[in-house]
């Protein structure tokens, strides 16, 4: 009887450990069936095949939570989470479709400028300071934005195509050869 109870305790502990190891809350990287939606905050880093999932192969996604301190390479079929930007595109045999089929993403700097691909989203609170060119980004040149958080005190000159973050007002316009379109193509913004 004591041996049976000991075995049940060991079995219960093993099941608990197994469940904890496969829980998305405790594991940043996991594999899911393509028929399942990708949870919010996760990105797709590879596709694969499993006889446990429905439909034709490849029928799985490997998903992970992106780095909050560095870069993460994701398949282009993935959405870019809020707050992240696209730095470049690349190639991987782990991702579907024709090359280039990956994006490198990260959270932009909060204290300096970050050069990002125009093809990616602009996070809330950031402004566009200039456009540029990069062979690492998709589409025709100019294909990059230089972005940053505007100054909390004083005036920041931004490109006319830039959004004006909440809490800022436009106090003037001007011209810069680093911004698209003809004059006036800049806005001076500041807190009221």
From TrEMBL:
Keywords: Signal. It comes from the Bacteria. Residues 1-27 form the signal peptide. This is Ig-like domain-containing protein.
